[in-house]
Amino acid sequence: MERWEILREKILKFGVRNSLMVAPMPTASTSQIFNNNECFEPFTSNIYMRRTHAGEFQVINEHLLDELIRLNLWSYDLKNLLIEHEGSVQNIPSIPQEIKNIYKTAWEISMKTVITLAADRQPFIDQSQSLNLFLAKPTYSQLTSMHFFAYQSGLKTGMYYLRTRPISSAIKFTVDQKLAEKTLSSMADEECAMCSS
């Protein structure tokens, strides 16, 4: 017991070699090379276009893809629906609720939950976290609330970046034209059935 006390006193006085090593930060390039999301952040989309010097390619949340294949739900049409819904599974009827609960995007998760998870990690991080928060349309009241909650939770960094959504969404060039025509055709059929013509 005496040896532990001596060690404790030396640590308090001199510190520990390599004691400041953990500072989780978003590492987009490295994470994407290994098919992961940046750091500890929630996915902003379950499908997106990745642009590099080598070109442009589509990336899908690998875990979601595995689940959809396992459930025999994955198809070309579902991929297009996912693009149409900006990478969210929440409004796609064919996807089970259990999957929807697991694969929420950063825009669909409560920021209070994200801050709470950061506070849970904080005791194990000797520096700080690059905590990014996501609000589609932030207000002063939301920002104030998030900052105070982060402070009261003991975080060293309340927010690194605030990510917002653009006012208008991008044109979905990768949506299959045949699917769009099929959707329009079925809508036209419904209109005819409604007016009985």
TrEMBL record:
Signal peptide: none
Keyword Transmembrane helix: no
Name the record gives this protein: Ribonucleoside-diphosphate reductase large chain
Organism from which the protein derives: Nosema bombycis (strain CQ1 / CVCC 102059)
Family per similarity comment: Belongs to the ribonucleoside diphosphate reductase large chain family.
GO cellular component labels: ribonucleoside-diphosphate reductase complex
Alphabetized Pfam families for the sequence: Ribonuc_red_lgC
GO molecular function, one term: ribonucleoside-diphosphate reductase activity, thioredoxin disulfide as acceptor
GO biological process: deoxyribonucleotide biosynthetic process
The encoding gene: RIR1
InterPro entries: NrdE_NrdA_C (IPR013346), RNR_lg_C (IPR000788), Rrm1 (IPR039718)
Matches recorded under SUPFAM superfamilies: PFL-like glycyl radical enzymes (SSF51998)
PANTHER family, per the entry: RIBONUCLEOSIDE-DIPHOSPHATE REDUCTASE LARGE CHAIN (PTHR11573), RIBONUCLEOSIDE-DIPHOSPHATE REDUCTASE LARGE SUBUNIT (PTHR11573:SF6)
Ribonucleotide reductase large subunit domain segment(s): 4-26
